Model the fold of this input.
Amino acid sequence: MTSEEIAQLIGRIAMADRKAFADLYKETSPKLFSICLRILNDRVEAEEALQEVYAKIWQRAGAFVANQGTPSSWLAAIARNQAIDTMRARKPVADELNGEYDLPDPGLDPETQAVLSDEGRRIDTCMEELEADRAQAVKKAYVEGLSYQELADQFGVPLNTMRTWLRRSLLKLRECMER
Done:
């Protein structure tokens, strides 16, 4: 259907022509529905908004001036504005969340976080006092969970030497942490 034919239908709707209204609905409802659906992202709300769009078209058809724009853009503007109004009328999600302000925070309290952060820095400082290969072995054993045998193989030392490295490194770390 051409813009001129749609403009004629709108003109007939302004004179309360129900058949023209039905023809306009049949011709333009898929496009206007897609506009509403794209904005609202909810099929039911888009259908309700579309009903309001056509009620406004029926009421405002006399205000359409054919030489001030295309009838399709006039219809699309009504649909877009109605969809935006519908979206604005929604109850904000924040209102629902405000009622739940008493929920406890499952995380650590700030004091505990500060203590743990300080301990972490102290451990890092103490790890720097160890020889590089010993520090790496401690990290791999106690952070990554490698076994003594895996560490011994990785560092190319006998199993008992790896045990000695780890034991002595832990003793140095404990001594450093107690300072």
